[in-house]
Amino acid sequence: MIPQITFENLLNDISLSRPSLSVETVKKFLLNGEQYLAENPDVKKSDICPVYHFYNYGFSEGRSFCQPKFRSITKLDRINNGKKVVFCDTIKSNASFLYRGCFLNKGNSLVNLMHQDSDFFELIQAVFFAQEVVFLRPAKASFRTAYLLELSVVLNILITFDYDDLLLPEYTLYKGAVRSGVSSYNSLQNSLTRDSALLLNASRLVCSTKRMSDIFHDFVDEVTVCKNKLPTEYFIDKKDVLKKEFCRNSKVNILYLSGTKTHLKDYSVISGILIKLAQNYPDRFSLSFMGKLEDQTSIFSLLGLQCQYIPFLSFHDMINKIGEYDLVLVPLENTIFNNAKSNIKFIESASQGVPIIASAVDEYVLSIQHGSNGWLCQNDKEWYETLEAILLHMDILPAVALRAYESALSEYSI
């Protein structure tokens, strides 16, 4: 077990790496001592150094972090031999952290991956020794993000923002959370406005899609596209795709990956089509819903369709579960927000030898050749006719699945 960094060791390491800084100066980077004492009169009464108290006791006691007065600190010289830190204030199993952090930097010993559960001392030490810090989906409400960002500025570190969603206030109306009634327009717009103000600190941006890159070019000069990809170890072997048994019990086993409740409006794209198909072909397919979307199975069960609801699974379990199906549905409203999203549902499904039917939004149009390695639909008629054709001609699935697997392995694996 790796021993935790103590506050004393943290101070010592920082002082050694930056010998021009005295211990007292380093403390100014770590906490606003005056404010901490004002908010904690018991600490002031004890006559203990406020920085020492917070990092040894206050943090674990749940006392508030007091942001240092960075404006009064002179910016330091940039170090040229540090590592890259990738930070996202979310749990390490979060899909954005996996795709934009873990997968893209797999096996890179020069990258420190840090997340919500990372030790606070380790976070600070990593940034002090960094040459570049990448903030994934930075949010101002996160005290870690706010602090590490300002710390990076004063340490003169190259700051990169990484986005896999169109998180700008002018597109609030098109976010799934608003359209699905999960969040109010005003509260979300205010939140995105505060978060987008952080862009002033970014030296460059990395985006997961070209549509997003084109939009963000209005805010930062250097914007690059780095598409989401899946490590090859998540892909099943080709021989397993070739011997995959499709349509067990003479039914097309269909999976709808709902994700979070923010996709309720996206589900409405196909809800009516699925009900009509259940009325007309109840014995030709089964339907499973996987994710945090509220259970939608009751109406289909009443129509005599074999149907089940699968709660939200871990990423590893989700990938394995996808492989049990014959077809995955990816309905998306045709909005600028969805057109800026990446095609991870195609990648994940294809990695298990399962083809998808998706709405014809940007990234899915780029990765799917209709009728060859999947299907694309633009309206109710196309969704119904495509699904109906598959139900009536189940034998087309294996060849499409193989081509989906091969294209994903070739273009979207690392």
Describe this structure in words.
43% of the residues lie in helices and 15% in strands. With 414 residues, the chain is an alpha/beta fold. The strands form two sheets. The protein has a six-stranded parallel sheet with strand order 2-1-3-4-5-6, with helices on both faces. A six-stranded parallel sheet has the order 9-8-7-10-11-12, with helices on both faces. Helix 1 packs parallel to helix 7, helix 13 packs across helix 19 (380-392) and helix 17 (344-351) crosses helix 20.
Which keywords apply here?
414 residues, alpha/beta, single chain, six-stranded parallel sheet, 20 helices, 43% helix
What is this structure, in a nutshell?
Helix content is 43%, strand content 15%.
